[in-house]
Structures are given as C-alpha cells and as structure tokens.
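Quick one, tokens below. Sequence please?
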C-alpha cells in the first residue's frame, strides 16, 4: 500500500493542427450544393443561384452582413462595426478566411466568439468552408471602431 508513485511529465512545444474535414466530389462533373431552405426550392422548381466568391464579390458582402449580425455581449455594437474583424477573404471556391481579434485577451467570450463567427459564416449560402484566425497583433483599440459604432456609444 505504501508504494511510491512516480508521476512522469512530458513537455510539448506544439501540437499540429488537425486537417479540416472537406467533402470532395469523386468526379469533376459532380458538385455539391447547399440551399437555405430545400422545401422552398423544391416547391418553386427553380434552382437558386448562389453568389460567386472572390475579393469584392457579392459573397464577400453577404459574409460581412452575416458578421454584422453578431454583437459583442458587453458593448451594444456588432463586431464588424466595432473593428474586431480585420479581414474577410473569400476564395473562388467559396472558402472563407476571417482574421479577427478581441477587445482584450481576457475577454469573457474569447472561447465562444470565434466559434460563433465560424458558424455564422458557414451558414451563408455559397460558403464551402470557414476558418477563423484569432490574432492579437495589431491589438484592438477604440480607433478601429467605425463612425456608426462611435455614434452608438456616444463617442462622437
């Protein structure tokens, strides 16, 4: 009973990021489509046209509108107008890469907000995959807020 137990520890310098799951068509003619409401498309008998990707595209504008629907829980302003979104890149294939930050590293939603951004972007029709990069450089400061956000917070 009085055996001495030895605890071994291993120091790890980094963990490789696991590959993201993607559905790839088996043939070049096969494509995968996403519809917002399958019943509406079925009843109308029409195929809904999805926006095309790329910089400055309608798909990028739709993603930005989706990001504007996410509000900071402590400040009554959406995260896009607050200046937390640094970059929105959409590839021709519909892959979205969002570069964002938080107001502080100790933000209470540091774990949940990037996940919410990823889910909201993935809900946009035409987006195949979404990756959210959380960065701390350059750090956020109130100068990154839009005029609309400053007006809402009474800073103008």
């Amino acid at each position: 009973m009085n055996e001495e137990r030895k605890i071994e520890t291993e120091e790890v310098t980094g963990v490789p990021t696991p590959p993201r799951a993607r559905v790839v068509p088996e043939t070049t003619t096969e494509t995968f489509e996403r519809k917002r409401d399958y019943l509406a498309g079925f009843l109308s008998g029409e195929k809904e046209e999805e926006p095309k990707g790329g910089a400055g595209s309608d798909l990028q504008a739709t993603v930005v509108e989706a990001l504007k629907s996410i509000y900071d829980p402590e400040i009554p302003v959406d995260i896009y107008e607050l200046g937390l979104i640094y970059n929105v890149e959409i590839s021709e294939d519909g892959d979205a890469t969002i570069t964002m930050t938080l107001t502080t590293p100790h933000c209470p939603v540091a774990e949940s907000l990037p996940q919410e951004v990823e889910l909201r972007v993935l809900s946009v029709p035409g987006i195949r995959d979404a990756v959210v990069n959380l960065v701390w450089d350059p750090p956020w400061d109130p100068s990154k807020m839009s005029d609309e956000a400053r007006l809402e917070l009474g800073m103008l």
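The mean pLDDT is 82. Strands lie at 85-90, 95-100, 129-134.
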